[in-house]
Amino acid sequence: MTLGRPTCGRWDSSTMDTLLPTPLFADDHAAASLRASCLFCHICDRIQHRFAQHARLSAHEALAFDRELREWHASLPEYLRNPANSPPRLTVAREFMRNRYLNVRLILSRCFLLYLAHDRSLKRGAAAISAVIEPSPDDVMLVDTCRSVALEAIDAITLYWTPNRVHVWNSAWYLFQASAAAAAADTTALVTIATANHLLENVLD
Question: How is this protein annotated for GO cellular component (predicted)?
């Protein structure tokens, strides 16, 4: 999914009826973490299913998915969101969860940089620059989201990495994705057609 290719093993509600994990007591952090991951995977399952469709993802759909992801994250217990309040045994699970959360938000918003580049490449033969359609406010919002989420991911990975080999390998991949998106998004404010064209010339050349 990180590279925009949907997986084949998506959740089928008609055959999968397993109940979500439920904490047995107030400080059953492991069960709460597993339940949060399951709920997150259900959202990602629908996102991957949408990516598997032929039609291009719309800005409205991307914003709706992003809002759902943010609501999921806001609903997490404090110890799964705030490193200062997290039990040591949850450190790696918490960081994996945050990396995946930010990465999925990045994938949703990164689409619109790629869409813009694709549209611009199709219009290279246009006689006048006015033939290029200016990005919509929602498109601009998603590119801004791409930039801010990429920077948040970079900060989170560099500030809260742990001396765990598997976690470092995982974080390095997400750090690369965030850095690449930040580099692409930060070269444009997407405010005017001229600014957008300058970015796209750099990307396409």
Answer: nucleus
- Residue 5 resides in a domain: no
- Where residue 14 falls among pLDDT bands split at 50, 70, 90? low
Judge whether 136 lies within some domain: yes
* Terminal C-alpha separation, the chain: 26
CA distance 45 to 169: 24
Is 20 domain-assigned? no
pTM of the shown model: 0.78
Q: How confident is the model at residue 2 (pLDDT cuts 50, 70, 90)?
A: low
Note down the domain range covering 98. Answer: 29-202
Report helix angle 91-122 to 165-185, nearest 10. Answer: 30
Give dist(CA 200, CA 188) in Å, integer.
9
Q: Would you say residue 14 lies in a domain?
A: no
Lowest mean pLDDT among 109-113, 128-132, 172-176: 128-132
Q: Which residues contact 161 (CB under 8 A, 6 or more apart)?
A: 95, 167, 168, 171
Q: Which tokens is 62 given?
A: 């991307």
If one counts every other C-beta atom within 10 angstroms of the C-beta of residue 67, the result is 10
DSSP 121-161: HHTTT-SSGGGSPPPPHHHHHHHHHHHHHHHHHHHHHHHS-
Tokens standing for 25? 């007591």
- How many domains, in total, are found in the chain? 1
Contact 126, 156 (CB under 8 A): no
Q: What is the pLDDT of residue 8?
A: 53
